[in-house]
Predict the 3D structure of the following.
Amino acid sequence: MSKGLEPRKGAARAGLRTIRRRVQLEGLRCLDKRSSGGQELLYWRKELLTALGGEDDLSPQKQMLVELATRQRLIISHIDAFIFSLPSLIIRRKKAAMPIVMQRATLAESLQKTLDRLGLERQMKKVEDLDTYLERRGEELAKEKEKADEPQPETAA
């Protein structure tokens, strides 16, 4: 490769630093929800929330862990994309793996610990029992019938 066409050192990771900084500052709002990667990440987050019993039933602490896990998943995905674009993962001079491979393993382990904290079992969404539902639905129907029976005031055109 000629000298002028070589990428500058660290340039390939500049995108990773940028996305990591933006996600840390803005959260998942900075994602382009139109892109396939953004849609996939948001789908993964939705699946995780569903597996935990729904967003409404989660404590604020667990919601924060879900946010953290989603951010970690985003960063790992970017690192994976970078790693797969490399011609080799080995530094031949040193006969060792590239440092980014170890960093990716550390981040993946961190994601695993976060998911362990959330719990590995699928949580069922809480639903009301049949008696409670029938009572509530009967009250709703009675209110609707009362509103329908009331005379409607005529409006002048």
About this structure: The CA atoms of residues 70 and 128 lie 30 Å apart. Helices lie at 11-26, 36-51, 60-85, 99-118, 130-149. The chain is about 60% helix and 5% strand.
